[in-house]
Amino acid sequence: MVDNWEDFLIPYKQAVDELKVKLRGIRGEYLKTDGRSPIEFVTGRVKPVDSIKEKMVRRHIDEDRLEEDMEDIAGLRIMCQFVEDIYQVVDLLRKRTDITILEERDYVHNKKPSGYRSYHIIFEYPVQMLSGEKKILAEIQVRTLAMNFWATVEHSLNYKYQGEFPTELKDRLQSAAEAAFRLDEEMSEIRDELQETNRVDDTHNTRKPSD
Ligand code: 0O2
């Protein structure tokens, strides 16, 4: 049983705070070296106690098994401009030595029935406590700005409808999710074309007049 929720959540809060700094640091480093970053912005939160309790009921998680069975008490989100950036960020996370990835769920190319898309990474993270090292479970969701827009709005509507959307609304949300994904694809194509144009221009500009 959890005697004191505030105490129970201390390592999770520590992990979220540390990881926000680290991930924002990567963005800064990218901007300095490449002029652009696959990470647009980072958010993080500790799951509110009410949501933990609600999820314990929904997923039949025993309070004694919370640390092992609830993976997203500490949650980070990384927002990217392009779908390709998501995979660049995932690769980067795979190489880090301060996190141990336990599971990856690619809901970007395997969307959920609701239409939801994101790349989820479940990992173990060591937090240095007064009592010594404590390994906690945490989740990072990596998504585009368009995926984040859809998920944010859908989540707030979900709250209102308690997950029981009328069929028509469910269908419209699914097609809105597809529209968001088409927007992502279109933006990637525009970027590719611009890069190709710049590449051709550069080639012409570097040719000597006699060429
Ligand atoms: P919150 O409030 O964001 O913390 P389950 O929750 O059972 O569906 P599971 O297997 O625990 O899913 O993990 P999954 O599906 O990999 O990730 C669950 C989290 O992904 C959710 O956390 C949401 O953050 C997000 N998510 C998954 N599906 C949807 C969706 O259809 N719409 C939106 N907006 N977000 C989704 P929580 O704890 O449910 O909620």
UniProtKB/TrEMBL annotation:
MF (Gene Ontology): ATP binding; kinase activity
SMART domains named in the record: RelA_SpoT
InterPro entries referenced in this protein's UniProt entry, alphabetically: GTP_Pyrophosphokinase (IPR052366), NT_sf (IPR043519), RelA_SpoT (IPR007685)
Superkingdom of origin organism: Bacteria
Biased composition (Basic and acidic residues): 191-211
Sequence ranges assigned to domain RelA/SpoT in this UniProt record: 44-165
Keywords assigned by UniProt, alphabetized: ATP-binding, Kinase, Nucleotide-binding, Transferase
Gene Ontology BP annotations: guanosine tetraphosphate biosynthetic process
A Pfam family that the UniProt record links to this protein: RelA_SpoT
Renumbered residue ranges of the record's region Disordered: 191-211
Pathway: Purine metabolism; ppGpp biosynthesis; ppGpp from GTP: step 1/2
Alphabetized PANTHER family for the sequence: GTP PYROPHOSPHOKINASE YJBM (PTHR47837:SF1)
Subunit comment: Homotetramer.
Family membership: Belongs to the RelA/SpoT family.
Protein name per its UniProtKB record: GTP pyrophosphokinase
